[in-house]
Amino acid sequence: MKQPDVIVIGGGAAGMMAAGQAAQTGCRTLLLEKMPLPGRKLGITGKGRCNLTNVAEIREFIEHFGPSGRFLRQAFARFFNRELMDFFENLGLELVTERGGRVFPASGKAGDVLKVLRKWLQNSGVAMETSARVDALVIKDGRISAVVCGGREIPCRAAVLATGGASYPATGSTGDGYAFAEAAGHRIIDIRPALVPLETAGPAAGAMAELNLRNIKARLFIDGKKAAEDFGELVFTEFGVTGPVILTLSGLAVDALRSGRKVVLALDLKPALDEQKLDRRLLRDIDARGKEPLDSLLRGLLPRQMVPVCLDLVDLPAKRTAATLNAKERQRLRLWIKDFRLDVTGFRPFSEAIVTAGGVDTREVDPRTMESRQVKGLYLAGELLDLQADTGGYNLQAAFSTGWLAGRCAAEAVSELTE
Length: 419
What we know:
By secondary structure, the chain is α+β, with helices and mostly antiparallel strands. The protein folds into 2 domains: 6-192 and 357-418, FAD/NAD(P)-binding domain (3-Layer(bba) Sandwich); 197-347, no CATH class. Helix content is 34%, strand content 25%. The protein is built from 14 helices and 19 strands. The protein has helices spanning 13-24, 45-48, 58-63, 73-78, 81-90, 110-124, 176-183, 204-207, 244-258, 275-289, 294-297, 307-313, 327-338, 394-418, and strands at residues 6-9, 29-33, 53-54, 95-98, 102-105, 127-130, 134-140, 143-149, 152-155, 158-161, 188-194, 198-200, 212-222, 225-236, 240-242, 263-268, 340-347, 355-360, 378-380. Strand 13 and strand 14 form a beta hairpin. Helix 1 packs parallel to helix 14. Residues 5-408 form the RsdA/BaiN/AoA(So)-like Rossmann fold-like domain.
């Protein structure tokens, strides 16, 4: 390949999309990926099923990113969920929409997404170097002029930095791009794990490890005040809790813990029943099965693995006859079922986080083009930016959209330079 016009650094979702779009405009495009194959992290997203996007409207979509979501409005206006779905379907990938508007490949295999993307890159004329670790960006007179890779200086007219975050480092996302961006003059918002399992105090969670609860309500309290709540699925682990409802709440918990605040998780195990209905249910069960021990009675209300934990925490003997429960003891049971509390003491490392919070300050990136406001010809895309949402396909759409815009605009800028 002759000297590339555009160099894309990083072969994740954003990088592959950027490289393909730049090449399709006629620019000579080189994709540098430090792993043996591009898209390693994409291959494990959505539990290996690859939740590509969500069918939510733009306004709702942006709300999932919090205050930083406004930055994405321009990228989404150019390339959003319908365009992404059309893109993959035109490449022959059949898609399905599931609960919550989540969009997956119909095969349920992330590998199929990677196959069509890699073939598309090849057909688009992208030159790719794998196992190619970038060492530095070369900036002259405020403009990107080359990329140093493996000791070689490769000249270029534009570059797209799409190295990903710091989550799942085994896939190649080791945070290299933050150093490149900082060296280029960008401010980096403190990075921390996001969409990450939480650690809890005491033996309760460990005693219920691998227990999966559906349709529970989880509330997060910070310094005694309710900060957020969510409804859905939770999984207990040896160290604490995980699952969709926990991942959604984890961002607030991580930031609170990092600032030394007290974090408590309160679980409502029977959100469909208020306390009065739950009490009537207990009374009916006692009336029908009063001769049974409490641990037997409670298996009608709670998963078997949870019963001994419940009885221990409400201080009731497992083999006590159910009919002997008095009103105050029933109240203790009700309160525990409706408000089971766990002190949150920590969070898991980047290696277990789905995405990275923090990153390049988006105020220093032009949202209309993804070009750096610090260095001409340098474009930034994907998880490297200070953008993160909860689960549901939102983060991956942001990667594809910002990659699409960065690749297109980098190519347009190159065309203008050659005119």
